[in-house]
């Protein structure tokens, strides 16, 4: 809904006459003639239009009423351009004012426009045939003109109540031939005119309450309203007269409300012209003319409601209606004051208006002490044909002086339904209960009944035919005692004891044998026991603290258990014939198709407002069952997801989960398979490209990196560390060791067989030996390349020796090696063999002495 025509849709533009295909002169025309700019209505037509005078003189402007043109010495002349600009400025400002009025309305595309409480002082201009409903109530509108609503030919509802309207022009509503609802209440209309309504043939509702008129006009106002069904007229102060012509032309009304607190003149038969009135509401301060009015309507009225009346002086004349047939079935007294005397007069009325079946007293006051014996009440044997008596908010200022009411007990024998609400009733005397022999329904809600007083009320032979007893919101505290006290009511089948403070439920209780309905809602109970009667067909335990339901009730058909703390649906085997269950606003997370199917006779389920976990199974079930909406009465709006978090707040019907959430097992299986294949592939690649070896070397390298880059000189323990293959040990141990360690001065060599520390990690032994040796001798051969430990020793020498750019490594080629046979991972070895000189063991014995000489020189360098 938008509030400005400029932002409205095409449909809204049609409502305002802007942006439509209508001629430009139909949009926002002046509200009525008196609102037109004065500059356009004063002076001659020629000057008003800014045209030159026929005689050639310019149009002069001077104060209106001054008929003498100004003299030449003081005259002034407005240039034509300036005059034209001023006229256009006035027109633009006037149009902008109308636009502001229109923008205060908000309309939807169906034609419903709301201008309620917008501080409007006139009916907005530019309304068109697109307007179907217009609410301008509670504003400051004072005038309704002939042209204000002339284009609203499709208007059906018009609300102008609570304004300051004092004038309505004769043809203001002439074009509203489709109007069905008109509210002109609470304005300042002092005179009413029948011409307002002469074209409103289909009008059904008319409210004229709260205006300033004294009468309903000189002629019949409503003779042109054959379809009128609801009429409200009068006011609380000035409306003082009702005449015979006032309601002429009306034959049937569903509701007639007359506010005539200060009524002084009622012409007999004024209301008799209305042949049938379903409901008459009469506001009358004093009862002086009440009987006269009753005489006219008693044969054509179904329900009579008397409001705001002081009946202290009411006197009923038996001769007035004793010989007339009556059709009144219901009497309502709302905010009416009685005395003991006037109450007796009202009781007489019940006897003589024989058709009355229902009497209601709402917010009434009894100014008396209940002493009816001295008022010949004993001569009245019953309350006519009254079967239903309702009393709400009865005030008795002198309650503590009240008599025992025993004089009215005999009048109650025919009453079948009694409701006494919120009237501070704490006791129904046993004798009165015994006189209510026909009573079938008793409602004592919102009173002060307790177990002690209930014992007296439900005495022996009390309420022998009572079927329904309502004790809602009283002062009952013991469920066990309440059940025992009601055992005297053999025909009781419906008991409402909700909103009492029972708190707990005993294990066993006694109840009347025919109990079928029990209402225990809002009683603060936290668990259910076998105290409940097994004969129940309807049970209401809503709004309590229940966290489970595990009772077996074989005859239960309806269960109301909303607003508790249940986490799951009850077990269907405990409730075999359940057809209705309302379990909304608990803490249920889910329910399944199997659970619902287990309730074989379930026709209605209300389970909205719970904290549903929208799992894949739950969504699949709820969204896949087209017939679910026929069982779930609050589906789908009240079913919202609480989790997962990304769908929280969404309707269950609209929630969607990803494939990974709905097929987690398959996704996990696929992921495990992929991981297994990845590990298998990694293992194959590691084996093929010696990845395991590289990882070991990386770990060792990281360990080595944590040590100092170069050991201090004093830590050098060996002249050389010898790295060789075990298969070359004979050459190393019997030739090289003999030549170097037995030389003078001897060289100290580090051999892994002899010098590694036992129990120490072999890699740490290798690293420490290399670091504590001045040189590292690599005895290269085919065996060396194939040896795993030689690979480690060579690689560690890469990290600690070759990367430091020194000559600590000495390569001895024990036998010729094809460089292509050296693995790719020995890239530095290949590089060294290509760039550095290495010693080659000669096969010729004559050259071996030179070999040892060169080796000793290399170690000393």
Automatic annotation (TrEMBL):
<keyword id="KW-0391">Immunity</keyword>
<dbReference type="InterPro" id="IPR035897">
    <property type="entry name" value="Toll_tir_struct_dom_sf"/>
</dbReference>
<keyword id="KW-0399">Innate immunity</keyword>
<dbReference type="GO" id="GO:0005886">
    <property type="term" value="C:plasma membrane"/>
</dbReference>
<feature type="disulfide bond">
    <location>
        <begin position="509"/>
        <end position="531"/>
    </location>
</feature>
<dbReference type="InterPro" id="IPR000157">
    <property type="entry name" value="TIR_dom"/>
</dbReference>
<dbReference type="InterPro" id="IPR000483">
    <property type="entry name" value="Cys-rich_flank_reg_C"/>
</dbReference>
<keyword id="KW-0832">Ubl conjugation</keyword>
<dbReference type="GO" id="GO:0045121">
    <property type="term" value="C:membrane raft"/>
</dbReference>
<feature type="region of interest" description="Disordered">
    <location>
        <begin position="1"/>
        <end position="48"/>
    </location>
</feature>
<feature type="disulfide bond">
    <location>
        <begin position="430"/>
        <end position="459"/>
    </location>
</feature>
<keyword id="KW-1015">Disulfide bond</keyword>
<keyword id="KW-1017">Isopeptide bond</keyword>
<keyword id="KW-0325">Glycoprotein</keyword>
<keyword id="KW-1133">Transmembrane helix</keyword>
<keyword id="KW-0433">Leucine-rich repeat</keyword>
<keyword id="KW-0732">Signal</keyword>
<keyword id="KW-0520">NAD</keyword>
<dbReference type="GO" id="GO:0045087">
    <property type="term" value="P:innate immune response"/>
</dbReference>
<keyword id="KW-0472">Membrane</keyword>
<keyword id="KW-0812">Transmembrane</keyword>
<keyword id="KW-0968">Cytoplasmic vesicle</keyword>
<dbReference type="GO" id="GO:0002224">
    <property type="term" value="P:toll-like receptor signaling pathway"/>
</dbReference>
<comment type="similarity">
    <text>Belongs to the Toll-like receptor family.</text>
</comment>
<keyword id="KW-0395">Inflammatory response</keyword>
<dbReference type="GO" id="GO:0042497">
    <property type="term" value="F:triacyl lipopeptide binding"/>
</dbReference>
<protein>
    <recommendedName>
        <fullName>Toll-like receptor 2</fullName>
    </recommendedName>
</protein>
<dbReference type="Pfam" id="PF13855">
    <property type="entry name" value="LRR_8"/>
</dbReference>
<dbReference type="GO" id="GO:0006954">
    <property type="term" value="P:inflammatory response"/>
</dbReference>
<dbReference type="InterPro" id="IPR032675">
    <property type="entry name" value="LRR_dom_sf"/>
</dbReference>
<dbReference type="GO" id="GO:0030670">
    <property type="term" value="C:phagocytic vesicle membrane"/>
</dbReference>
<keyword id="KW-0677">Repeat</keyword>
<comment type="function">
    <text>Cooperates with LY96 to mediate the innate immune response to bacterial lipoproteins and other microbial cell wall components. Cooperates with TLR1 or TLR6 to mediate the innate immune response to bacterial lipoproteins or lipopeptides. Acts via MYD88 and TRAF6, leading to NF-kappa-B activation, cytokine secretion and the inflammatory response. May also promote apoptosis in response to lipoproteins.</text>
</comment>
<feature type="disulfide bond">
    <location>
        <begin position="107"/>
        <end position="113"/>
    </location>
</feature>
<dbReference type="InterPro" id="IPR017241">
    <property type="entry name" value="Toll-like_receptor"/>
</dbReference>
<feature type="compositionally biased region" description="Polar residues">
    <location>
        <begin position="1"/>
        <end position="13"/>
    </location>
</feature>
<dbReference type="InterPro" id="IPR003591">
    <property type="entry name" value="Leu-rich_rpt_typical-subtyp"/>
</dbReference>
<dbReference type="GO" id="GO:0004888">
    <property type="term" value="F:transmembrane signaling receptor activity"/>
</dbReference>
<dbReference type="InterPro" id="IPR001611">
    <property type="entry name" value="Leu-rich_rpt"/>
</dbReference>
<keyword id="KW-0675">Receptor</keyword>
<dbReference type="GO" id="GO:0043235">
    <property type="term" value="C:receptor complex"/>
</dbReference>
<dbReference type="Pfam" id="PF01582">
    <property type="entry name" value="TIR"/>
</dbReference>
């Amino acid at each position: 809904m938008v509030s400005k025509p400029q932002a409205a849709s095409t449909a809204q533009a049609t409502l305002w006459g802007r942006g439509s295909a209508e001629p430009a002169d139909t949009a926002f025309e002046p509200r009525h003639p008196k609102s037109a700019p004065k500059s356009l209505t004063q002076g001659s037509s020629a000057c008003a239009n800014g045209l030159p005078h026929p005689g050639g003189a310019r149009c002069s402007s001077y104060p209106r009423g001054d008929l003498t043109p100004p003299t030449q010495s003081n005259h002034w002349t407005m240039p034509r351009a300036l005059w034209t600009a001023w006229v256009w400025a006035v027109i633009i400002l006037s149009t902008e004012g109308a636009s502001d009025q229109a923008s205060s309305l908000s309309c939807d595309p169906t034609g419903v426009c709301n201008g309620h409480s917008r501080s409007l002082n006139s009916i907005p201009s530019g309304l068109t045939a697109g307007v179907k409903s217009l609410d301008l109530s509670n504003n400051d509108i004072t005038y309704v003109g002939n042209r204000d609503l002339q284009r609203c030919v499709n208007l059906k509802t018009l609300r102008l109540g609570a304004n300051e309207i004092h004038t309505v022009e004769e043809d203001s509503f002439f074009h509203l031939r489709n109007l069905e609802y008109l509210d002109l209440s609470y304005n300042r209309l002092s005179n009413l005119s029948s011409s307002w309504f002469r074209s409103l043939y289909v009008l059904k509702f008319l409210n004229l309450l709260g205006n300033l008129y004294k009468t309903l006009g000189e002629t019949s106002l409503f003779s042109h309203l054959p379809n009128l069904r609801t009429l409200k007229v009068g006011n609380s102060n000035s409306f003082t007269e009702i005449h015979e012509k006032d309601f002429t032309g009306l034959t049937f009304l569903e509701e007639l409300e007359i506010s005539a607190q200060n009524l002084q003149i009622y012409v007999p038969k004024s209301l008799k012209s209305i042949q049938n009135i379903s409901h008459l509401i009469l506001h009358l301060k004093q009862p002086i003319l009440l009987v006269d009015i009753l005489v006219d309507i008693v044969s054509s009225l179904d329900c009579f409601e008397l409001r705001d009346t002081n009946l202290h002086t009411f006197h009923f004349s038996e001769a007035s209606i004793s010989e007339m047939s009556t059709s009144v079935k219901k009497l309502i007294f709302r905010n009416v004051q009685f005395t003991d005397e006037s109450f007796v007069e009202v009781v007489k009325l019940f006897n003589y208006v024989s058709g009355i079946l229902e009497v209601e007293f709402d917010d009434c006051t009894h100014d008396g002490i209940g002493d009816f014996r001295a008022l010949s009440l004993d001569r009245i044997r019953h309350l006519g044909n009254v079967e239903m008596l309702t009393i709400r908010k009865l005030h008795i200022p002198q309650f503590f002086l009240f008599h025992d009411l025993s004089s009215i007990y005999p009048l109650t024998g025919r009453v079948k339904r009694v409701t006494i609400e919120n009237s501070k009733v704490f006791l129904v005397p046993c004798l009165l209960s015994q006189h209510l022999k026909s009573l079938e329904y008793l409602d004592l809600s919102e009173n002060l009944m307790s177990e002690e007083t209930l014992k007296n009320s439900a005495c022996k032979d009390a309420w022998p035919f009572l079927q329904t007893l309502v004790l809602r919101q009283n002062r009952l505290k013991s469920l066990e005692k309440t059940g025992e006290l009601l055992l005297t009511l053999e025909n009781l089948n419906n008991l409402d004891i909700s909103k009492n403070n029972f708190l707990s439920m005993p294990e066993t209780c006694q109840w009347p044998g025919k109990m079928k309905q029990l209402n225990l809602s809002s009683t603060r109970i936290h668990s259910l026991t076998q105290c409940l009667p097994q004969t129940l067909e309807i049970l209401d335990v809503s709004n309590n603290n229940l966290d489970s339901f595990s009772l077996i009730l074989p005859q239960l058909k309806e269960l109301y258990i909303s607003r508790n703390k249940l986490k799951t649906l009850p077990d269907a085997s405990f409730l075999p014939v359940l057809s209705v269950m309302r379990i909304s606003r608990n803490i249920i997370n889910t329910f399944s198709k199997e659970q619902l199917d287990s309730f074989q006779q379930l026709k209605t389920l209300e389970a909205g407002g719970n904290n549903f976990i929208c799992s894949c199974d739950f969504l699949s079930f709820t969204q896949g069952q087209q017939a679910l909406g026929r069982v779930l009465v609050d589906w789908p709006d009240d079913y919202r997801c609480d989790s997962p978090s990304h769908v929280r707040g969404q309707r269950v019907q609209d929630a969607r989960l990803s494939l990974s959430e709905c097929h987690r097992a398959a996704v996990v299986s696929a992921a495990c398979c992929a991981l297994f294949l990845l590990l298998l592939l990694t293992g194959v690649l590691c084996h093929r490209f010696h990845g395991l070896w590289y990882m070991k070397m990386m770990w060792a390298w990281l360990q080595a990196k944590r040590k100092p880059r170069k050991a201090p000189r004093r830590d050098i323990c060996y002249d050389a560390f010898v790295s060789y293959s075990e298969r070359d040990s004979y050459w190393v141990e019997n030739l090289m060791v003999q030549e170097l360690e037995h030389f003078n001065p001897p060289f100290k060599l580090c051999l892994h067989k002899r010098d590694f520390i036992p129990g120490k990690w072999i890699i740490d032994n290798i690293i420490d030996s290399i670091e504590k040796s001045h040189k590292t001798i690599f005895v290269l051969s085919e065996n060396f390349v194939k040896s795993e430990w030689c690979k480690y020793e060579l690689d560690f020498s890469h990290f600690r020796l070759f990367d430091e750019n020194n000559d600590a490594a000495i390569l001895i080629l024990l036998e010729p090696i094809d460089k292509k046979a050296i693995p790719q991972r020995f890239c530095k070895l290949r590089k060294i063999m290509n760039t550095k000189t290495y010693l080659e063991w000669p096969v010729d014995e004559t050259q071996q002495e030179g070999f040892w000489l060169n080796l000793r020189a290399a170690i000393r360098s």
